[in-house]
Amino acid sequence: MSLRQMEYFLAVVDADSFTRAAEALHVTQPALSHQLKSLERQMGGELVERLPRGVRLTPMGRAFLPHAELAVRSAVRAERAARAAAGAEGGELHIAAVHSIAAGLLPSVFARWRRQRPGVGLVLREYSRGEDLVEAMERGVADLAVGHDPGPAATRTGGGMTLTPIGAEEIVMVLPPGDPLAAERVVPLAAFAERAWVRCAMEPVVDGRPFIDLACEKVGFTPRTAVRTEHTSTAVRMAAAGVGVVAVPSYAAPPECATVRLDPPWRRGLFVIAREPLGGAGAAFAELLAAHPYEPPGDAADGPAGDPADGDTATARR
Fold it and tell me: Which of 71, 146, 172, 270 is the most exposed place for a label (fewest CB within 10 A)?
């Protein structure tokens, strides 16, 4: 089978129509049908069922689809990487991240990249949840991702991702205006036992539970949730408006918001995540991140990352 045949198959599936797929590919419909039938002969069965209106994947087609997507995307990435490695105009590096990292951590890194490699473009793909990001990386939608440890299922040898550590982030508390704790530099978690909390769907998870619940239970209370949001930026705005306190990475807290650190501190490792060893522009981007890692505020004596459920720093998985 050829890469072109897989591209034609994906075009038919995406367009849900032979006619629209042929138009998108700028080929005649008979030529498209011929290529797909040839692919099906090689596969030993039909991949799509031709309906009066549209198409439907057969069981064989559903099994073939993710592998065809990965093969086509890998070929596209290979061409991009070659052009990017040579600094050629039109070369692109595709990067994935969850919203909080994309908005809070990557802008300054992207700015340095543009100064160093103006001929290589950047494409940022943002995701609401860490699970969505890992799933997207498994499908090959980006050259690399910047995020947290996706867990052992995604990092086993031969099973998927390679991880390159680039630093750590610290979780801080964003407080409502006029909060008396704002004058403190470091505050124990128990000080928030009677406060209303703004919770975010993007919170890290430890062993299937939000790490905030585990950490608060360890010091003797259950957080009282006032509002649940989808995104970190919304949660921070809610806290700034006086709705309640919120725990977020320090880079996600706007300068105008009052923040305090926790004692003991909560930290999470940050990694470059990729399906395969990086080369070319991908390796250069990882080196840039490693050369300018995000370091959380505070003293180096705070110690290495640990498990928030033990009252230490956060290595929570999302």
Answer: 71
